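U., I forgot to send this yesterday:
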Amino acid sequence: MNKKELAQFIRENIPFYLTGLLLIFFMKYYYSRAGAGQLLWLLAPTSGWVSILSGISFEYMPNIGYVNHDMKILIAPSCSGMQFMLITAAMLLFSFVHLAAGDSGIGHPWKSAATSGRTPAPHSRKAAVPDSRTPAPHSQKAALRNGFLWIGMCLVLSYIFTIFVNGLRIIAAIYLPLLFERLGLFGGFLTPDSLHTLIGTAVYFAALLTLYRLTGSLLGKTAGEPLLHRCLPPIFWYFFIVLGIPFLNRAYVKNGERFVTFAAMVAACCGGILLLYCAGTLLRKSHSHPKH
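Result:
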């Protein structure tokens, strides 16, 4: 893609990207000020999903969250998964909206008459083939419709996916510390708090990698992509929202040591998940394409 095509690509998709940025900032602003009452639309289905998985019952306490007093478990606003929903929606929107809109001609500035299935007649003056890089007005309208429809689908998909993944994370956060305590694994760096952070990072980041791979396969994007390219969007959005935005808000100034420790744990855990993901992908490829 040359500079002219890149400029056209950005120009054609700028309504979707601006809408996505506004949604991200609105959701982040909403989450920073929301309490349990404002997050019931996430907390209630999440606690219900956890109850189905574990058999543990919860009761709602206003302005606090869902509580199980016997096991001393609290699903508070910080456990709602709102930040993961934000990351998921951003990754799906910015990574694939041009493909959803491109079905109507927009979002594919590199597509030529040859690749779009048209066969131009170079010596014919009567039947000139229109340039596929200049979509007709009706296809522009269809592309805008498809693009904004995809944005809506991203919000719905990220909501459902967040409840599903967050329930699994909470189950792991309930039972893994009990197992670690029984085995006497706590001590030094590994504390219940650090284990809680590692569990959340591992579950969320692995889920993002999986979702990106599945969505890309369905839309035909990741089929021929190098392995590194498949990992970059989940890496970028996870680190940008989990660490980048707090860094821009000068979290390192307010509590530098805690921020550095948290950032190191997140980076180390994501690095380990990434190595496992890449190793699994390469191993699967080696088995699916054996040498003769």
